[in-house]
Write a structure and sequence with these properties.
Elements (H helix, E strand, L loop, with lengths): L1 E3 L2 E10 L1 H14 L7 E12 L1 H12 L3 E3 L3 H27 L2
Parallel strand pairs: 2-3, 3-4
Antiparallel strand pairs: 1-2
Helix pairs in contact: 1-2, 2-3
Length: 101
């Protein structure tokens, strides 16, 4: 992890799977404090595989507004699928919010 005044960058390597995905979520929860307004970037360039557990962690990080860096087709595809899955929930929340006004 690289700490900068306006940014926090997480660089991951290897398999984002099983216990490693759990470790990322645990470390993320401990490290990212409520009220920390810095931009957060997760670098996935060195990640070689992602299982369902890893996808769930990435989805949660997406919900929290994390930006990702990915270079290979596989990882970009995983991120695109996760974004597609999250989009309907964002639209639903916006529509519910607008209908309440």
């Amino acid at each position: 992890m690289t700490e900068l005044p306006d940014e926090q960058r997480w660089s991951l390597q290897g398999h984002l799977a099983g216990e490693w995905a759990d470790e990322l979520m645990s470390t993320w929860t401990k490290t990212r404090q409520a009220g920390d307004m810095r931009k957060c970037i997760v670098d996935l360039v060195e990640v070689t595989s992602i299982d369902r557990n890893g996808e769930a962690v990435l989805a949660e990080l997406m919900r929290q507004g994390v930006d990702f860096i990915a270079s290979d087709v596989y990882t970009k595809h995983v991120l695109q699928n996760l974004r597609s899955e999250l989009e309907p929930s964002r639209v639903d929340k916006k529509q519910k919010s607008e209908s309440n006004h």
